[in-house]
């Protein structure tokens, strides 16, 4: 994600924006709808595969996981989707419940539709039993407004979990 930039011509506007962001960050967390969790197979073979699910009123939000991997056999993964009570925020978590994946990922991309990403993270190892999540190094992946994806040449082929928190896309009137 790009770092916020400061504008010198709008001092009071910048202060107002900072205060608004602080108020939003400090408000109590909104209730989240019961997440929908769906199991799917991550298949090796070097071919690009995709899996997607939608959630929210009228399937307002979609999360799609596209990847290619090598080695081993199919692995059971899960995708969990949830929305805030007011349906303005959406979460998508994609992970291997057994922790570390033994597949060699040549590429990955988790993409959202109907929302813009506020937070995205990728992990080489998912929490399992007494072990914690292990995040990828920041240079191995990138986060844009709509996707979390590998960085070609920097990604070290280990992936076990992706987490996205997104906010409803603004609609122009």
UniProtKB/TrEMBL annotation:
GO terms for cellular component: endoplasmic reticulum; extracellular space; Golgi apparatus. Residues 1-31 form the signal peptide. Pfam families: UPF0556. It comes from the Eukaryota. The keyword Signal applies. Keywords: Signal. GO terms for biological process: negative regulation of apoptotic process; positive regulation of angiogenesis; positive regulation of endothelial cell proliferation; positive regulation of MAPK cascade; positive regulation of phosphatidylinositol 3-kinase/protein kinase B signal transduction; positive regulation of transcription by RNA polymerase II. This is Myeloid derived growth factor.
């Amino acid at each position: 994600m790009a770092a916020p930039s400061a504008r010198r011509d709008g001092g009071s506007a910048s202060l107002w924006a900072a205060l608004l962001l602080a108020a939003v960050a400090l408000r109590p967390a909104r209730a989240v709808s019961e997440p929908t969790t769906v199991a799917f197979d991550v298949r090796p073979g070097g071919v690009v595969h995709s899996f997607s699910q939608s959630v929210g009123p009228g399937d307002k939000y979609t999360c799609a996981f596209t990847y290619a991997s090598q080695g081993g056999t199919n692995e059971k993964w899960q995708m969990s989707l949830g929305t805030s009570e007011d349906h303005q925020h959406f979460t998508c978590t994609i992970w291997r419940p057994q922790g570390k994946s033994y597949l060699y990922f040549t590429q990955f991309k988790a993409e959202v539709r109907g929302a813009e990403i506020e937070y995205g993270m990728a992990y080489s190892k998912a929490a399992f039993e007494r072990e914690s999540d292990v995040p990828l190094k920041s240079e191995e992946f990138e986060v844009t407004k709509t996707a979390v994806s590998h960085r070609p040449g920097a990604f070290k082929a280990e992936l076990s979990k992706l987490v996205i928190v997104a906010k409803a896309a603004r609609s122009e009137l």
